[in-house]
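Blinded run. Sample ID left blank on purpose so nobody reads anything into the name before looking at the predicted structure. Input follows.
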Amino acid sequence: MKIAIMTQPLGKNYGGMMQAYALQKVLRNLGHEVTTIDYNYAESSIFRKMARLPYRFLQKLTGKRKAPINLEAKLPYILEHTQQFIKQNISMSEYVDNDAALNKHFDSNSYDVVVVGSDQTWRPRYSPNIYNFYLDFLKHNKNIKKITYASSFGVDNWEYSSEQTDKCAELAALFDAISVREESGVELCEKHLNVKSECVLDPTLLLTKEDYIELLGSKFKGGKGEGVFTYVLDSSQAKMAVAENVSKQLNTHVFKCQAKCSLGSLASSSLQDYKMPAVQDWLASFANAEFIVTDSFHGMVFSIMFEKPFLVIANKKRGAARFESLLNKLQAEEHLIYDVNNIDYSILSNIKPVDKEKLNVLKSDSVNFIHKYLN
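Blinded prediction complete.
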C-alpha cells in the first residue's frame, strides 16, 4: 500500500528524526511504499517575523542577547548534519507549510493510508494547528484509511482548549484506528475525545539493536563501552552533578554529543555552539557508552536499545508520563529519578540494562497493531 506519515517537523530534534526513520523502516519492511510529509506549519506571518527584529536588536543593545539576530537564517548551517541524515535515510515529500499545500499534495497522490505519529503529534503546544494532526484536511475523504501510531499527548493532563477538544473529538471519530504511546493517553482519548485507543511502543523500539548498528558503520566500537554519556535537554548544574557522581563511582569520564546551545538559547554569539552533531555520532554515543544519564524520552529509548545501564531524570516540564508509562511496562522503574538532589549512588550496582524479553513481548503487540489495521 501507499502510505503517508504525518509527524512533527524534522531536523532540530534527534528523537524526532529517529522515530520518523524507524516508522518508515518498519512499514517498508512490511512491503509498503512510504512517504513522510515534510510538514512545518507556518505559524508566523512575514510581517510578524520582521516585527521581531527590532525587539531582538534591543536585546542585543541591552546585553540580553548574544545569539545572532537572524539566527533562523543560519539554520542551513546549524542543521547541516541532521538534514543530511534525513536526505539520505528518510523519504520525504515536497515542503508543506499550510492547509492549501496539504490539500494539493494529497489530491496529487493516491495514498491508501495516512499514519499520524509518532512523538508528541497530539500535544497542542508542540503542534501548531493541531487540527492538521487530526487530518482535518481529509475530513470528507472516505477513500483513505486514517490511523495513528504511537501519537503522544506528552503529559497525563489535558492541555486542549474547549474549542480544540470539541473539534478534535469530532475528527478523532473519523479515524479507523488509534494508538497512543502512553497508557495515560488511552485514558485521555476515552475521557476527552470519546474514542477507544491502544497503547503501543514508540517506533524506535520496533527495530533491533543491529538495525541501528548498521547505521553506525565504523563508528560502533563494540564491547562494553567507555564513559558516562549525558544527553540532557534541559541542562542544569544539578543534572551535570549526577553524571559526574556516576562517573566517580564507575571510575570513568563524562562526555556528551549535542550542540552546546539549543536553538532557543540566547547565550552565545558563535554559530558553532548551535550546530548539531551528526546523527550517527549522537547515536554512536549511546552504543559506545558504559553508562547513560539523560532527561530525554528518546535518550531513555536508545539506552534500552543498546542494552546500557542508565538513569533517566524525570523531565516534568516536558512531561513525565512518557517515562513512567514505558518503564512501568518494562518493570524498570528503578531507572527513573525524580529528585536529582536526593540520589543514593550505592544503587548503581543494581542498575542493569533493561530485560529485552519484556521488551520483545511489547514489541510483538505493537507490530500486531500495525498488521491488523494495515491489512
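Unblinding after everyone has recorded impressions. Residues 11 and 311 are 26 Å apart (CA to CA).
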